[in-house]
Amino acid sequence: MDIKAEAAKMKLAAPELAAASIEKRNKALDLIAKALEENKEEVFAANKIDLENADKNNIAAAIKKRLKYDEVKMRDSIAGLKQLEGLVDPVGKVLLSRELDEGLVLQRISVPIGVIGVIFEARPDAMVQVASLCIKSGNCAILKGGKETANTNKVLFEIIKKSAIEAGLPEGCLLQAEQHNEIDELLACDQDVDLLIPRGSNNFVRYIMEHTKIPVMGHSSGICHIYVDEKADQELAVPVVVDAKIQYPAACNAVETVLVNRAIAEEFLPKLAKGLDEAGVKLCGTKEAADIVVAKTGLNVEIMQEDAFAKEYNDLIISLKVVSDVKEAVKHINYFGSHHTDCIITEDNASAAYFTQMVDSAGVYQNVSTRFADGFRYGFGAEVGISTGKLHARGPVGLDGLVTYKYTLKGNGQIVGDYATGKKQFHHKDI
Amino acid sequence: MDIKAEAAKMKLAAPELAAASIEKRNKALDLIAKALEENKEEVFAANKIDLENADKNNIAAAIKKRLKYDEVKMRDSIAGLKQLEGLVDPVGKVLLSRELDEGLVLQRISVPIGVIGVIFEARPDAMVQVASLCIKSGNCAILKGGKETANTNKVLFEIIKKSAIEAGLPEGCLLQAEQHNEIDELLACDQDVDLLIPRGSNNFVRYIMEHTKIPVMGHSSGICHIYVDEKADQELAVPVVVDAKIQYPAACNAVETVLVNRAIAEEFLPKLAKGLDEAGVKLCGTKEAADIVVAKTGLNVEIMQEDAFAKEYNDLIISLKVVSDVKEAVKHINYFGSHHTDCIITEDNASAAYFTQMVDSAGVYQNVSTRFADGFRYGFGAEVGISTGKLHARGPVGLDGLVTYKYTLKGNGQIVGDYATGKKQFHHKDI
Lengths: 431, 431
What we know:
The structure is a homodimer.
Chain A: H1 3-18, H2 22-38, H3 40-56, H4 61-67, H5 71-86, E1 94-101, E2 104-112, E3 115-119, H6 124-136, E4 140-144, H7 150-166, E5 174-176, H8 181-187, E6 195-198, H9 202-210, E7 224-228, H10 234-246, E8 255-261, H11 262-278, E9 282-285, H12 287-297, E10 301-303, E11 317-323, H13 326-336, E12 341-345, H14 349-358, E13 363-366, E14 385-387, E15 395-397, E16 403-410, H15 416-420, E17 429-430
Parallel strand pairs in A: 3-4, 3-6, 4-5, 7-8, 7-12, 8-11, 9-10, 9-11, 12-13
Antiparallel strand pairs in A: 1-2, 1-17, 2-16, 14-15
Helix pairs in contact in A: 2-5, 2-7, 3-7, 5-6, 6-7, 10-11, 11-12
């Protein structure tokens, strides 16, 4: 497929999808849910081929688990579609309404971004989720899923596209890229693709970010920290750190590093080390932290060098470091962190305020697990991803991150010359 | 200067400026205004050197006019500083406040972006304007002005930086790049610079956009259109088009192309051509448009090829084309335009609604001059620039475009495990 030519066609078709009523867009979601149910045997048969191929290629068990698309996962997909249907339309909101002068009215109105390219991991449920988010927000989408689910994705995409067209959405609103080399073609479409959302491994996301001029929304790594302050409630701190590490260690919002205030290190680090060890977490740390833990608990701590703090484990491993105060903690986090989500454990309002103000991350927490950084938990409904960029959208991104705005100005012949010469004056009344 | 090292230092210092109170930031603006007044002879002496150098280098008169920084322009700078001081603080706004569960409170709070690089044209007033916008919004700034004003900029920058530090802002909040080769060094600082704002010629802005991984806010070209519909008020249309072309032809929001509905072309084009000709505008057009104008008025129209419609004149030249309906007009605009500002002249609500919905531009107007696309005219106070990108900020960008947000989450030991197992439920109450 000639991705460049298809993207150019899509760009010109995008305003048509943007103009589609919310009834049509919701109808599409409804038809997709029904069609999934009606064609489930075909979907499962395609998924069986993907799973057999995974066996042939000796794919790891953890990845195979994600490839599998069964009755339970389809239930989740259908429930997700129903939930999305119920969410408020993000398009057409009047964000500003201002009379610049008599009869001269400015409005700022939310509109879809246009053409979005999404490159996502080998999970069939991601295909349904991503396509439905783009439909709901009125965006044309070029979708490229992981090659390990090629057969399942092909069937799912056909179901989705057919349902969208049946609901009255324009023919050219969705496109599936199936070949790996088409990713590089997509990256070159900066004239026609307005936004890229890559999901997957750190290296993959970094590759995307470094090889395109299209704006990219997402995160390459999630190096999250918890700083345990001198005035921490230590009984609260241990379960929070353990949850942040073990509740889903491969998630980007799992904690990688715990910084402990020196004043409580001798008392707290052994308690924390025991809690983590019981949960099956391997301990790493600076020599100072390791010495304390080893002396008091006999547990094994691998001594690490300073630059290893920039590493995301994605696993049941954690880094420990002793710091002298909240200032040193903030400095460490802003230098080694990925500006994702970082937490302070303290009962002291001044330390908490300083930490919240100074840590330059999308999420800054006090006394709770970093695992809360998630669109569903924030109450945004569906989530497109988490952005560690600072422009447009930051943190968990819901439907609102898939829209932009345009300004409309209506008048009856007003010219700028009259205002430049002073013949007329603006009065700028919000209405 | 080692721009990369300086940018890295600035990145770590940025949270300190972000934490500076609005009183300190306003105080800095106040001190700059006073220091300009007190040191004006030094500023004017430096400007005299720039003007003498311009003479030696045979700089064009139009450009020399922009280099000149005199009593009148300093008055404007000082008035701008006073106005900016009066604007509401864009930092620290609570944009969302939600109780996720009892005792677990999420807030979205506006914060400065961090480190902004601004590369701007050779105008001393731009140095004052850009620096003061960054100070007001709590952003660290690396400033590079046009080389033709190097002497004036050096003095102005020293005044600004000294005043900022005197007001209590951190030492490292402002940096001036003076050498042209430092632009390329700045473009490579994607680890530490959060946003680049280039201002200047189309080619220059395009160069910046193509040679950096840092997000860029701005516009390379402004190809604005006016479509005169079958149901247009023709008496209104002529002065609107003339104003949009001549009120400031070098501005990005000046109109470049007028599309005229075929049903009124024979009647309207001659009237328009006369109006434009009287205003000193050179006419270009398709053969169809030219034939009509020549036959009815005898005025000269240079016949142009289709691909010439992608050109921005920045001058008293205009392109004319006959189209069959609003659909063809929209198609032309979305294909040849720069997604800046486009206008329909019509009394017909259906055509206006279609045009407003379908034109994919930052500004879509009805019955008014495209020259209204400007932050001051929109009532935003100071303007950083106009963005034709779709992410973060679109159209005229005021102080709000220089901030992002962070999420804060405060609790008392909540862990995600309890919600995952169903022991606790979110209730998501906006508070």
